[in-house]
Each structure stands twice: as C-alpha cells, then as structure tokens.
Recover the amino acids of this structure.
C-alpha cells in the first residue's frame, strides 16, 4: 500500500513453540483508523505488540517508513509510535500528572530539562482526555475508567503520529467510550494521526474505523472498509455467529445484529 507508513511483512510471532501470528502481511493506512477484530486468541494483541516493536519476531519484519523497526533506536521509535498496553500498571503512589509526564520521555535528552513544549503537551493531553481535574490524584484512588483515561493521556502526551491502542475502551462506560472514539477521529481528521486499535465491539469499529482487519487463528481472514468486512458470512466464519447486517441510521455503514438462537443445555438435556 503506497500510503502506508507502518507495515508488517510475512510476520510470525509466537510464545515458545506456539505460533500466535503466522506469515501475516499487513499495511496500515496512513492517517486512518484501523481496527483489529477477531475472537479471543486470534492474535490481535500479539500483532499490535509486534507492530510496536515490543515483541520479538520469529520471522518477517515490521517496517516504519520502509526501515526495519528492529534497527531503529528505541527513542526514535517512541517519538513516532505511541503504544497503550492492555491492563497497563504504574508504580504505587504515582499521580495522574506524574504518569502523563512520562509520555514526554522520548523527547528529552539525557541532560535536557523540562521545557515549555513538554508542559504544553502534558496540559493538552490532560484536557483532551478530560483528566485535568485529576492531575494531582493518585492512580490507585481512581476508578477503572478514570485510570484508563489517564493512560490514554500519557500516550497522547508522547505526540507520536502513530497510536497503537490495545482495547482502549476497556473499563470505560458507554459515554466515555464514545468520547474516546470521537477523540481518535478528531486526531485523525485534524492532525493526520494514524490509529490502530484492538476493539471488541464490532459496531463501534464499523462506525469509527476506516479500515477493519478481521483475524482468525493468527491470520487475516478479511480486511478492508467496514462494509466489505462486516458481513454475515465473515461473522459466521470467524465468530461462529449468525447475524443480520443492517444499515447504521447515523453513518450509513453496516450494523451487525446477532440472531437469537435457542439455548441448548451442555449435557444435551439429560
């Protein structure tokens, strides 16, 4: 893909002898929202970590602007790629402000002091995520949703043009899920950000993402715009789920509605 800045070429990733992602090639569209979808164990999070350079590849390569990610200095990669892990943790007693300031690490030299640009980036990240009023609160006193927004703020303070987010809507209530997804669209449309996120909610992915990648057993089953990927056949093949596809009245895109099916007792009714 000519407009891709981050690509995976025949990538295989595993844990020990067990391959999780195998022979996978993927080009991430520049300045677009890509959602990684699939059932548990399909390789979504493993692939995302591989794209961030945080998981050793058994075979293949991840390229950033055509250069192998593994050969680039870690700080140079961190200035371009912001990564939010699933279930990230911080040292005990750390405040929201302290956490968000950690996002500026890639931009600071060994002897360089804190700059006005650092302060501005932190303030903007806190404002964008609605966490400015939590700045002095300890992370361990916050709700799950508040902590998740603080971690997202840290990732935004990094100011990388590429954001890799592993289940960023986890712990957020519905209103904050929508706020976050709208924020990601805002960053794409106003700053040209490239976003890749692991999502579980298919209809949110269809509404907010430009490009869907549907994984099954560590391989790409389908990819493309939502209407091409979110089909009844693909849902049956990947999730084993019968669905009907409706038209989203807000966007005109696809909406996936599971069909009801009778409950069958596990013991066969005996």
């Amino acid at each position: 893909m000519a407009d891709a800045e981050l690509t995976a070429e025949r990538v295989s990733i595993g844990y020990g002898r067990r391959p999780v992602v195998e022979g996978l090639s993927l080009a991430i569209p520049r300045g677009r929202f890509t959602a990684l979808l699939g059932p548990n164990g399909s390789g979504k999070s493993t692939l995302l970590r591989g794209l961030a350079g945080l998981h050793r590849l058994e075979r293949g390569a991840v390229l950033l602007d055509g250069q192998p990610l593994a050969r680039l200095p870690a700080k140079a990669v961190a200035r371009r790629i912001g990564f939010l892990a699933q279930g990230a943790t911080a040292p005990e007693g750390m405040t929201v402000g302290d956490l968000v300031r950690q996002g500026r690490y890639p931009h600071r030299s060994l002897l360089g002091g804190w700059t006005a640009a650092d302060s501005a980036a932190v303030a903007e990240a806190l404002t964008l995520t609605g966490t400015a009023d939590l700045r002095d609160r300890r992370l361990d006193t916050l709700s799950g949703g508040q902590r998740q927004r603080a971690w997202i703020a840290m990732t935004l303070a990094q100011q990388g043009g590429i954001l890799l987010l592993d289940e960023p809507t986890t712990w957020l209530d519905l209103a904050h899920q929508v706020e976050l997804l709208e924020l990601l669209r805002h960053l794409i449309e106003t700053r040209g950000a490239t976003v890749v996120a692991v999502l579980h909610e298919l209809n949110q992915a269809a509404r907010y993402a430009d490009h869907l990648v549907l994984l099954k057993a560590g391989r790409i089953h389908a990819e493309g715009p939502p209407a091409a990927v979110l089909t009844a056949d693909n849902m049956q093949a990947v999730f084993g789920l019968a669905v009907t596809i409706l038209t989203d009245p807000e966007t005109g895109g696809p909406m996936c509605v599971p069909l009801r099916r009778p409950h069958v007792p596990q013991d066969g009714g005996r």
Observations:
- The chain has a mean pLDDT of 92.
- The longest strand covers residues 4-15.
- The chain is about 30% helix and 25% strand.
